[in-house]
Design brief:
This protein is of the alpha/beta class. The chain has a single domain, classed as TIM Barrel (Alpha-Beta Barrel), CATH 3.20.20. 35% of the residues lie in helices and 9% in strands. The protein contains ten helices and seven strands. Helix 9 links the parallel strand 5 and strand 6. The N terminus is likely disordered. Belongs to the glycosyl hydrolase family 6. Its EC number is 3.2.1.-.
Length: 341
Amino acid sequence: MYDSTGARPSARARASAAVLGAALLLAGCSSGDGDKPDDHAGRITQQPKSADPFWVNPDTNAARQVATYEKAGKKTEAGQIRKIAEQPTGEWIGPENPEQEARGFTEAAEKSDRTALLVLYDIPHRDCGQYSQGGAADGNAYRAWIDGVAQGIGDRAATVVLEPDALLHLVDGCTPGQFQEERYDLLKGAVAKLKSLKNTKVYLDAGNAGWGHPDQIFQPLKRAGIDQADGFSVNVSNFYSTQDSIAYGKQLSAKVGGKHFVIDTSRNGNGPDTAGNPSERWCNPPGRSLGEAPTTKTTDPLVDAYLWVKRPGESDGDCKGGPKAGDWWASYALALAKNSE
């Protein structure tokens, strides 16, 4: 699973860059002198709000890669990566300055008249010791972190995907038994805290179409506070098709009171990998493609949005030649974009 702390700028730098980037967009200028037409060639713009209300961060790894390629005269490569850079992707809040980051991203989104898409991924004992292991030191540290996120969001509009894999790892048994009750309590408390905010939507993560059956996770969702949440998320950082994800989500929705859900379509254009070691198919699989662009205009009334929760081009972990989790991998990003043609 994606690690929000992997080789990325500090929380302060990222939040500041987000605000600066949004300001540049609103001003209609680049950071250059503005005298030449090419000064605007690398600018990243927002998507039409009617179909895609989420904020496009102008200073992502993908946006910087576009600028690098354009400066080097690699127009074809720049055009491919622009497919990623001009779509809204999840902002994974880091562990160190949650209030500052959440405020920076939501303020930048508000200035662009958009909604910030935030991913919270700091639950204690995260990822069962795998590529994205870590998380808050203990329950009290996590509660303080959630409080910081909530203070940073305030009354501004935000959509939150809450703790990818946290419930799945309770069901599959890889989270030690002595931590399970605490995790339910932490998730339920996080939902309650975030839903106390005026304009925040919350989606509890609920796995994906390939890991098991909805019968295995609907009770854990209820214990974690799904009744108070807006719904649940599926396919985060995974590759299952939108069709399969809708089928899985609808089965699960029927068991949790008809709750709506969102789907991570960032890299599911070619569906999941079916070759190689089954336990590693989720990690940087070759031959994958960008999926449906983020939008609230979906094909099913139970699906609130297709989202790019995972940032396409950022590694799943140091497997198959990739860098550590969360690091930018330009060649993989190019392959995702080219395969989407």
